[in-house]
Amino acid sequence: MYEVHVQKVHEFIMFLSYSRMKYVDFIPDMKLETLMKCHMNTFAYFNGLPEQILYDNMKTVVISQKRVILISLKQKGK
């Protein structure tokens, strides 16, 4: 007989709005540390940083249901 192990996984998806280039990762949890690793992997895959990131209703980054979080990564002077 085979032993079956079921584990819940989450999907991290980021895509660029203009080119629609996508990065997908399957992760075991939604901890902040895991989220940061996903971002680092994504930026390495995209070979750079987007100017802004718009998040959906993700518990790790949502402050309240009434606000949408928009993070600007634009460097000063550019």
What topology emerges from the helices and strands here?
Layout: E1 10-15, E2 22-27, H1 32-46, E3 52-54, E4 70-72
Antiparallel strand pairs: 1-2, 3-4
Low-confidence stretches: none
Looking at the chains present, what oligomeric state does this protein adopt? single chain
Report the C-alpha radius of gyration, rounded. Answer: 15 Å
- The beta-strand count equals 4
Q: Give the overall average pLDDT.
A: 81
Structural class computed from helices and strand pairing:
alpha+beta
- N-to-C SSE string, H for helix and E for strand: EEHEE
Terminal residue distance: 62 Å
- Percent of sequence in beta strands: 15-25%
Helix count equals: 1
Strand adjacency order, main sheet:
1-2
Overall 3D geometry? elongated
Protein name: Integrase catalytic domain-containing protein
